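Forwarding the complex inputs:
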Amino acid sequence: MALPRISIVTPCYNHAQYIEWTVRSVFMQRYPNLEYIFMDGGSTDGTVKVLEPYRDRFAHFVSEKDKGQADAIHRGFLESTGEIMAYLNSDDMLAPGTLQYVAQFFADHPDIDVLYSHRCTVDAQNRVIWYWVLPNHSNYLMRRWDLIPQETTFWRRRIFEKAGNIDPHYRFAMDYDLFVRFMQEGKFARANRFMGVFRVHDSAKTSQLLETVGKAEVDQVWRKYGLKNSRIDPVLSKMFFYSAIRRGCKYAQSNRPLPGAFNGIGYDYNDVWGGLLNDRRLPPRQ
Amino acid sequence: MIGPQGENLTFLLGLPRSGTTLLSVMLGKHPDVYCPPEPWLMLAMQALGKVSPRHPANSQVIGGAMREFLDDPSMHDVQRVAAHHAYNVRLNAVGRSRFVDKTPRYYLILPYLRQIFPHAKFVWLIRNPVAVAASFKTTWGMDLPKLLAAGGDNWGYYDLVLGPRRLLNFSYEMHGAVYWIRYEELVKSPEQEIQKLTDWLGLPAASGLTDFDTRGAVARSYAGDKKIVGTSRPHADSVDAWENVFSNEELQVLLDAIGAEVFQQTGYGPVLERFAQRGVYERKASITKAFVDRAESLLSQRWQDVDEASSPPQKPDETLEPGELPERADIGIHLVRRELVEKDAELQKSQANAIQLNAELTSLREAYGNLIADREAWFKQAKYLETVIAGLNEPTFKKLVERMKKLVETWIIGRPGLKAKDEKPLPRITVVTPCFNSADTIGDTIESVRAQNYPDLEYIIVDGGSTDDTPKILNDYLASGVITKVISEPDNGMYDAIGKGFKIASGQIFCYLNADDLFEPGGLRRVGEYFRDHPRVFVIYHEDTVQIHGWLFPNSKQVHCDTIDLMNGYMLFQDGVFWRRGVYDVIGGASNTLRFAGDYDMWLRMSRANTLVRRPGHVSRFSIRHKQLSGDMGKYEAERMEVRGRFWPGLPAVAKARLHAKHVLTTIKNFFYLMRRRHLYFPMDLTNLPPPVMQPPPRVEGAPRCPLTGEEPDQLLFSTPDTRYGDKAMNYVYYNSKSGVAMAYPPMSDTDLAALYETHYSDADAQPIEPPAGSTSPYRKWFGGGRIDWLMLKRYHLISTERREKVSWKDPTVNELLSLVKRTCPAKGKSVRFLDVGCFEGELLDRLKEVTDWQLAGLESNSKAVTVARGKGHDVWQASAVDAPYVVPQGMAFDLIFLGQTIEHLSEPSKILRRLRMLLAPGGAIVLSTPNLDSKQIDLFGPTWAHWHMPYHRALYSRKSIKLLAEKSDLRVNKLVTHSNPYWSVMSLWLNQFGLAGAVPHGQNPPAELCVRAADLAIYSKYLWNWRGRGDYLYAMLSPRET
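Prediction (whole assembly, two chains):
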């Protein structure tokens, strides 16, 4: 089977602390047909220096001032050629074996356009702190609330071309906006595994902007696509969110691990990778 | 001047109490504008000729005459001319050119105004109707909600219900030619609003309109708002004043009466949101409609009354006026009768109607009551949901993170039996060590206590006045904090010393450890956890291990015991007994007169009231040396009999009977306990003692750890030197019963292990080493304690010579591998990418090359072996298994990765498997082979089983632990089969002949009689054990767990 090309775009600005984990988690997938595009917004904290050993592995490496994260992703996607696409923020990571699985999944399910999975969350020291275990995909739920874990989401080029590129005007909800458009055009599926790792840390954009820009932009998306919310919806939303967390807790307590994470919390996510993230070596090119 | 069609005339419309006076005062400041307070002129004009019924000149005649004199068009002409003239008279008087007629209740006659003055302009001052109602209440004391709810004829119906609707409709009919000015905006920014209004009216610009002197016309006038008199500037104080005026119920009435659509159409939608926040919601449209209909009917009634009062009476044709007599009596009677009949029918109809209406009223009342109750419930629910939402909306993300962490922790920790990190704290354990001149051994004892790493430990040493180095050693440890307290004074024997120690103890769990005994690694933690989880258990005892001449054995099995057993001479291992403080206090402490059997005395007294609970596993280690106190068995026995003789006769008869009854139960329990199979229990072979003296392993910090779960093992299996190459270093084999893994101790660094491999594995000339003549060795001629099936097979020769000769002695790896993977990776027909991890010199690759058309590759860390394998033409990378993801080129993947007899050599197997997993192609699998800890042959050969092979094998796995290993490595066991091979059986048999003192390397020719028995074993295995999963080694196929 000829493996499809997978394009991954990483926008980055001053994340030297985490960027190596991110980049290694992509390269150590050992996926043969990978197109990794790195869009650095002119970092000043040595990000580029950290990535020096990996520099020749990127299909496209840019380090120049940009107009923000969404703009970087937008331009990155314009450069991409892969059949399957995704973007991975510079503090998130992929789980081991993800790209192989995604390629296989899209080959087996020609009707599915977008694939995402549960979310595993780590802190700044790579320790796992909680999980979101999501129910099967439902357009109703996922359109209303920004709960699709972006770092685990992969899609086909055909839906990307139908629904359009990421909107560079957003600062926060660009993924939500994109996924709502995807949901209007195509079919989603949720994989019962962990495909990516989300990081919560003090300087994360999610923590800084959630309350201010985030809410406003989510409102904006609602208005833009005519998503009406009833009076009960805020409550439903919280219930849905907490049920994902609660199921994550059940997962942490259970003895049945899913691919991509152990049970329990507090362990180093690098252990899931068999310690491959903290090394600086890469396999030789083919 | 006003034109005849109403040019230069402006009507300022609005509701009473909506601030029209304010606007009129401001407009009146304009030099061109005359704006008297409320002329009411047009209302009077419209009512021309309609006078009160009490008019002395007969109102009906006046009305009728007027109507007869002037028909409708000419009436309107008269009224227009009169009004026109009236306005102009006033304008002339004050010398202005524009007239603004501000009369709020003009909303009653809007079409009329338009008809009379088609060119007049209309300005509507809009104000929030609820604020209007509030102003009614606060200024005029008119409680409109109450009046509206009561339903009587009142101004609420006209000014609140009809007024805004009529004005709205009029605006719509005029297609926007009515200028809307909003009260709230007017008071907020009066200059701009007035400017806009004057522009619209076409007035020249003027300034100072917003500063006014209100002591003029308004104060003197009959009409107009007197509230304004005290102010000289517009202000916004009363915009939101309504919120404090009305209760929720009153607001509901107002909302129902006015109608939500009126709010929305007049631009007061936000007011509805304020309502919703207070719990007042829009209800059905029919409720509002009822109010409007009621208002319309009231209003039309009023108009009708006015018209009736001013209309000429209509003569009925054949009805009888009271007091008027008919001209003919018969006609009169006829008429009266007819009227009576009619009246009767009418009365009956009314009565029926009344009954029906009464019934309707009752049911409506009931429905109303229900609705009220529902409403209460909904309000409650809404309020609850509001608090829920308010609670959920945490202000910052950080708080949300903390909250989620807390939730996660409470959900994880709050449930019993789950992976709780810090649930209940472990109880404090007090260990007392009595010593006297034990400088040789006390160091080891204290070190073993230190190595426990128990979080809450009190360690008391009672020294009986030693004269050797003991006090110095104790002081060193006291300074480093290992020992809590040292008591150093002469004492009256060991049990006196123990008593002194416990007297100052502060722990909840007590035990004592003699100066030459040790704790097994992790022992105290297991004891603490057991006492923590079992609050009703007071005394527990364990088996211990015995250390002698550097060897370490599990001591003999302990059974369940009670007082009667102790009376009959059952011995507990003192170092494995732990009890709660309360028990010790109740029995009154250790006896200070006994010198030898003080422990027996304590157990006996403790057992009277408490069940002694037997716990599996090893906690402590008992050392046999020469000068030991317990070695003096004669004196011990004598003292034991003395204790016994004192204890039993003192018991009451009832207690004796109870203890006997309990003993029956214990005996039954023991019967079943002894029936159970004892897997992996290798007691000392007493016939072969004493063993040769060996060096015990060096003391290593930390406990042995299970390579899968990281737990401390709970059981010692046996100790062994290197039985393949004759190295004399001792290795302890521990077993973790939870994960089913046996592991080697002490741990060995990778470099040491690599050096050992270099020394021995490349040594082709290694010879079997027989034990020295005359020496004995433990575990020699071990055959599983005479298992009945094996004895039968040995005794009755069931295997024929021909069958025996058919047994294959060849290396079976290729066949076993191919048979395992034949479904997924057939040998021919498909090109399978195969990686042999640890391929050594490529023997397996050679064999596979012959029988398959796979693409073969290998991985080996030994550089010499790599050279050899490459010489044979194989693709081999030189690296250890850990580095496999770094040496195999990016993008290269394998369908089959084989670890032949490899994982038992690794200290972190799941890490290796996780890394190798990344080399798998989709649909690929990892196949591993390893000795089987469930093997039947372990029962037969015990510690001389050839696969133990310490220290090279770091861990041995059972079927259960292979599943656990797969789970830890994100894999799943697809297939698991076991095999046996006569080659390994003959190794075991040969080693068994030598005992653990000897050594048997590979590649030798074993004695012929052993080969015969090995062949027999191979046949038995095939038919009896392999298929039950109890073959000598296992093959497992692991594949990624896909969902």
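The CA atoms of residues 273 and 281 of chain B lie 9 Å apart.
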